[in-house]
Amino acid sequence: MPLTNTQKAAVVLQSLDPLVLVDVLQHLGDPYVERINAEMATIDQIPEQEKLAALMEFEQATVPVGDTSPMPPAATAPVASPAPSKPSKTAPVNTDAIRKSSPSDVAALLAREHPMVCAVILSSLDTETASAVLSRLPEDLQGEVVYRLAIGQQPLPGVADEVKRIVASKLTIADQKPAGTFGSADSLADMLSFWKKEDADKVLARIRDKNEHVTRNIESRILTFDNLFQKISDDKSIQKILRNVDRKDLALALRKASPENAERVYKNMSQSAAQMLKEDMEAMGPQKLSIVEESQRKILDKVKRMLKDGEIVMSTSQEQEVSDLV
Asked: Which of 3, 93, 189, 270 could link 221 by a cystine bridge, Cβ 3.0 to 4.6 Å?
């Protein structure tokens, strides 16, 4: 059975230098990339003779009409040469190297790259650094990158490692996660949890038109002050949080909390401490919304640090939707 045009395209693309491949992908729409990606996954099943025929057909198609002279080596090299062998794994660079490259430097390098390149790099960084880099990308690029992270769209085989290695060579950043790790709704929600609510809402709005379900899925996973005591619901963790946050910030934050959340806080304090907190809230009088939200942000920042350090854990009783985002 002859190869389909999509299979032929996959054969040709596999033969390209990874950086050339990334450049080509920028000019293809997502539906084409997804179809070619599916064929790339099974390309090893295509006989070598048929692969060679596809490469020769492409080479002939690139020769100008009436020109029977052989193509110069420079033109044929990216296509006619055998597919590059998979790069050998290199020893991971010390994780301290990531700190030598600021999020601004990484974002500046990625600003003109394809969204898939950005997604690959962000997936290799720790959550807080990835969040900081994402927030510094151009707004129109953010939405495209967020969408790819949310659906976990995998790059074509062999491209991710090469892209990460090239960027690492420029910024001396190492792989921060095991090979094969890529975006997911959970990892993206963790990134956006470090953002201000209005900024997170803005980038989510850019992907809502693409996929409402994906957007809702991410929103349900983002940690906010409003859902804090649903996602972290065991009393021991709540008590540890209360011991580590500033009491003034807590009093301000609770002014905009739901009665249920406020009650969860009071329940995990001694009766005298809860009474003192209520008196502090009354003595403060009216407060600007921006001041209240800043106190909530400070508490969330503290909670995120505690989660990262393993001092507290998300509640295992909280059932979260697990969606098929393929």
From this structure: 189
